[in-house]
Each structure stands twice: as C-alpha cells, then as structure tokens.
Design goal:
This protein has 399 residues and is an all-alpha fold. The protein has a single domain, classed as Ribonucleotide Reductase, subunit A. The chain has 15 helices and two strands. A two-stranded antiparallel ribbon has the order 1-2. Strand 1 and strand 2 form a beta hairpin. The relative contact order is 0.13.
C-alpha cells in the first residue's frame, strides 16, 4: 500500500497510522486530518490536543511559504512534527501527573514483578542515553557528500538530538523518584569511565548499544555508504524500530497487571517521537538503496550491509526479549513468544514491505533469532548481573 508523505509518494505506511485508542480512552475525532497524522508505532494513538496542552500551543495546519527550505520535503514534514509535538516538557509532565499513584502501585508489587520492570527500564534508560550521545554523529553523517544536500534533513537531525536527550531525562527522573529501591546506584556516565546499568550489561541490549557507538563513529568519520547503511540499520531499525517498539509492547502488557500512570504517559510521548526517528532512518536508507539500484559504483553493497546488520542485531534483540520475560519468570505476563513474533513482524514490515530489500530471506532472519533463543535459555543472567554489580560498585567507589 502506497502512502503519500509530503507529496513525495515515498512508501512509509506507518506515517499516517492513527490507532483509535489511547490508554482505554477514545481518541479526539475532531482533530483535522493533517494534524492527526501522528506516527505512533507503539500501537497507541496520542491525541494532538493532549500533546498541545502540554506545550502551550494551538494546533495550526496552515502552511507558510518558504524560500530555500522545501516545505513539501518528507524531512521537513518530520521536522515540523517535531516542532509541534516533540517539545513536551518532561519535568512539567511529572508535575502535572505526579509520582504518587505510581509510587503506590510500585510499592504494592512483589520483588519478581519489580525485577521485571527494572529489566525493561534498564535497557530503556541506557538505550536512550546511548542514542542521545550518538545523535550528534547522525547530524554529521546526514551532511555527508554521499547524500543529496538537504537542509531539511539536517534540521530534523537536530530535533532528533534534542528529543533523545529528553527521553533520557524522563527515564532518569522517573527511575530516581519511583524505582530507586531497584536502582540504588546507576549514576555512572558510560562515556566517562563508567559502564551501563548491570542489568543492561547482562543482556543483548548492552552489546547492541556498544556496537551502535562503533557503527555511528565509523559512519560519521568519513564512512562509505555501506558504513552509513549499517549504522542507520542498527540505530533506526534495530534499536528504535524493533528493540524499543518491542519494549512498548512489553510495557503495554505489564501495565495491565501493574498500571504505572506517569510511566505510561511518558512512554506515549516517547513512542510518538521515536516513530518520527524511525521514519527518518527508513527514508535515509531508502535514499542509499535507490542510489545502489541506479548502479552508482560507490553505493554497491548497501542492501547487503543493511541485511547483514539486521541479522546480527536480531540475536541481541531476542536475547533481550528472553531476559525481560522467561529468565525472570514473566510475572507480569508479557509472553516471550508473542514478543518475539511482534519483533519479527516489525522487522519484516520495515525491511521487506518498506525498503523492499532484495538481499536476505525471512528464513535466515528467523534462524538467527532461534539460535539466539537457544543460547539465551542456557544463560545465567543473575550471575552476570552480580558480576557487573561488583564492577559498578568498584567504579562508584573510584577503585
């Protein structure tokens, strides 16, 4: 199904996807179509009226004539959505909703239920921290001569950097004020001699974030089109498109058993932001693929690079899915099999339906996931967490 985006006719079927409900309440049906076009890849619709109530703006759909900026460009439309919807304030959200209800629910959970939440939130806070730090490299990469010059592309990359920093802020504030008993220490900065939270270090997500930093550095520092393709695949398809969106699925399941109102609100804003980031990444990859298919020598191997990186990443993602479900007994009923199947569908949508990759096969992809699942079943995650707890404590003490 082809969907028009900013008049460009690019194939991004999620961009205008508007699910009907948010947290059990009906979405605002009075919103004008251009404003209602929110990217909500998490499977929930965040009404524009709610978003604007937090940023103090009135929704407006009138387009103003521009000069050197192409206002019909997909990247510009993504940027404008970031201006309109991505400027929510994490601190104001917390003051508006409050911590009290979440603290009451959190205190009522047993230790296994808290541990499952802690494992999920660990990889979100470390993941958001990692992508916030790598966003500056994305800004440099999209200015590369391998891309057609686009002011709008650079504008959106700058908005992405701000939004990733804000996601880090939200999880940091929430963890400190609600879940602190499961995170007695987590202040270390991974780029300044620290390590990731022990739970993150214990699962595939930790390895994936470390790999992300390496790939983004290679892409930004004069990388070839294949290097850029690997970095964008890891970041926008692997981390944001599958790992995070799978996390939203897990969060929704866990909320049914343990409704944390403030955390849910934060996730709704974050997932809307991330949806724009994924669309941006797919657009970037599509640009590289088109140049390869045109036969330009320097771009040959882009599709294979995308596929190879996706296959590598699915192992880390499958391990993380097992880590937050089966390995802790799944007390909040996420269901590992459904989580993995969700990830497979997301991957297929992006790589085969949206990017129309010729390289690779679904069978190869699923085999990589099955191999990772078998390895995960034999892992002693608790022992690894304990090991990194000792390392973390030593670093906190300055040893």
């Amino acid at each position: 199904m082809m969907t028009e985006v900013g008049g460009s006719g690019e194939r991004f079927p999620w961009y205008y996807h508007t699910p009907d409900r948010i947290g059990g309440s009906t979405a605002d049906s009075s919103i004008e179509p251009p404003i209602k076009k929110l990217l909500t890849l998490s499977g929930v619709f965040v009404s524009t009226s709610l978003l604007y109530s937090f940023v103090g703006m009135d929704a407006s759909t009138d387009q103003i004539e521009a000069g050197r900026i192409d206002t019909d460009n997909t990247y510009y439309e993504l940027y404008q959505k970031s201006v309109e919807l991505g400027t929510w304030d994490a601190e104001k959200l917390m003051h508006k909703v409050g911590f009290e209800e979440d603290k009451e629910v959190w205190d009522s959970l047993d230790d296994n239920e808290k541990e499952q939440w802690a494992r999920l939130i660990s990889y979100f806070i470390d993941g958001e921290h990692a992508v916030a730090q790598d966003a500056r490299r994305i800004m440099k990469t999209v200015s590369s001569p391998w891309f057609d010059r686009s002011i709008e592309k650079e504008m959106f990359a700058s908005a992405l950097a701000l939004e990733e920093a804000k996601h880090t802020q939200f999880f940091d504030l929430y963890l400190t004020n609600v879940m602190v008993d499961k995170f007695p220490q987590y202040e270390l900065d991974t780029r300044r001699g620290g390590i990731q939270i022990p739970r993150t270090e214990a699962c595939g997500a930790g390895e994936m974030f470390e790999r992300q930093g390496t790939l983004q550095a290679q892409a930004a520092d004069g990388g070839a089109p294949t290097d850029i393709a690997r970095a964008a695949t890891n970041y926008h398809i692997g981390v944001e498109g599958i790992l995070a969106r799978g996390g939203y699925f897990a969060k929704n399941r866990m909320m049914q058993e343990a409704p944390l109102k403030l955390l849910n609100k934060g996730f709704q804003f974050i997932s809307t932001d991330e949806g724009r980031h994924i669309t941006f990444g797919l657009e970037v990859l599509n640009e590289l693929i088109e140049k390869e298919r045109e036969g330009i020598p320097e771009y040959q191997g882009v599709e294979n690079a995308i596929w190879e990186q996706a296959v590598e990443d699915i192992g880390y993602i499958t391990d993380t899915a097992y880590f937050i479900t089966e390995s802790v007994g799944d007390p909040l009923n996420v269901d590992f099999d459904e989580l993995v199947n969700r990830g497979a569908r997301l991957a297929g949508d992006m790589m085969f339906d949206t990017l129309d990759l010729d390289a690779g096969s679904a069978t190869e992809f699923m085999q990589a996931s099955a191999d990772a699942m078998e390895e995960a079943q034999g892992s002693d995650y608790e022992a690894v967490i304990e090991k990194y707890d000792h390392i973390y404590s030593a670093k906190m003490a300055g040893d």
